[in-house]
Amino acid sequence: MGAAANTVDSTVRQDLLISRAFAIQGQTELSVLELTGEPARDFELYRSLGNEILLQIEVLAEGDQVVVEGRVFDLASGDSLLGKRYLGDSSVARRMAHSLADEIVLLFTGRRGIALTTIAFYSDRQAENRIKEIYLMDADGQNQRPITNHRTVSLTPAWSPTGTAVAYTSFFSGLPGVYVVDLPTGQKRPVVTEGSFNASPTFSRDGRSIAFARSVPGGNIEIFVTDTAGGNLQRLTNSRGIDTNPAWSPNGRQIAFTSDRGGNPQIYIMDADGTNVRRISRSGRYNDGAAWSPDGARIAYAQREAIERFDIVAVDVVTGEARELTSAPGSHETPTFSPDGLRIAFAGKYGSGRGATQIYVMGDDGSDVRQLTSEGNNFSPSWSGYVP
After folding, report:
1. CA atoms of 85 and 100, how far apart (whole Å)
2. Which residues on adjacent β-strands are paired with residue 193?
3. 80-88 β-sheet, strand order
4. Nearest 10 degrees: CA dihedral of 246, 297, 162, 360?
5. Contact by Cβ (8 Å): 143, 94
6. CB 113 within 8 A of CB 106
7. Res 353: pLDDT
8. 144 by DSSP, 3-state: which?
9. Whether residues 226 and 104 fall in one domain
10. Structural domain harbouring 164
């Protein structure tokens, strides 16, 4: 029971810190208090250290099950603001902790927490460096596990709107093709594999279509769209440049993508039918990897100036105002927003750039950078939406 209690405590604490809504005091800070067991008196003691609310968590045994009980109190009034009870096997202690943390975030912010969301990415952590598989991890970087085992190169995961499937690129059939894995069953199936190049899938908002980059006769790469079964293939772009890395907008009406039709790779937006193409990035010699914020107001992407490094930039879609979010030595690429829009995960190298590429998460203003992975090289994070 002690292991489950430690898991719950550390998980809730990390989840609340990641939410960016709380400053937390723990045993070290509270050890100076001489608690009496009398709520009214003890609440005053907690308040003396500047606290406004109190979270009490009990982890108990009930037969062979674990019970997690969480209570939140207003220290000024003494009122109980929240009471939750979870029952389950010890193997789901982290999930119960995530659920409690999300309830607390919702109570005080009015928005859903992200503790139960998931980040997909690809990694070369298996023994053979040429093998890359798709992995999932919790939003706090824990519980990392593979969801493919193709024993080849699999890349660029992208979530379905329901969170029950992940589309990705794989060389499983020899040439890059678009595949989908159904997470409840683990079943993997090809979507588009004909031709020499099919890559970088992105789901439409309704989950019925997938946009992706595809080579055409003559070798150029354009944006296409298909249904999730691989039928009704339609071409959306037709330019002299390479058009790739599409990203469907949250409202389903637009697609951002990378194109070098103007000379250097830049971020463009088009309507979902391929019309009304306009450039959104205005600085940087190389821009790639567009990711929409959940409200559709911003697009984050990787920008490279003359030096051989990328930084994450976010641009306001309406005003065009761009803000650089990373500036530390190293390179930072492939951003993805959390479903509440307050955090961005990305792949990066810090320092001299000689180390491994890892997945990091930061605030949407570039603050509070935290490393999530550490084994092998890890790339191209994709943050899921909220769980049902």
Report:
1. 9
2. none
3. 53-62, 65-74, 80-88
4. 80
5. yes
6. yes
7. 53
8. coil
9. no
10. 118-383
